[in-house]
Amino acid sequence: MTKRFEGVYNSTVFEKDEHKKSKQYKGLSPKMRNAVDEIFKTMDSKPSDFLNTFEKTIKKVSKKFKVTEKQLMNYFEKEMLSI
Known about the structure:
- With 83 residues, the chain is mostly helical.
- It has helices at residues 5-12, 23-26, 30-45, 54-65, 69-81.
- Helix 3 packs antiparallel against helix 4.
């Protein structure tokens, strides 16, 4: 039985939408979930440049989804503390 490389890679190396399994994420409002998903989508599309533009991305997403920057930063701080 042979497995395709893509199947092995996706199941072992990188799990997409892993952030959606966390307790902090599940406690968010739908608007905040959409904002967090957008941030992770941006991070996945430009991983090498993401750290340099994190604050800019937070500002952009907060305006788009009408959530405060502080709420988004609080989410990421709580997420980092729970690891």
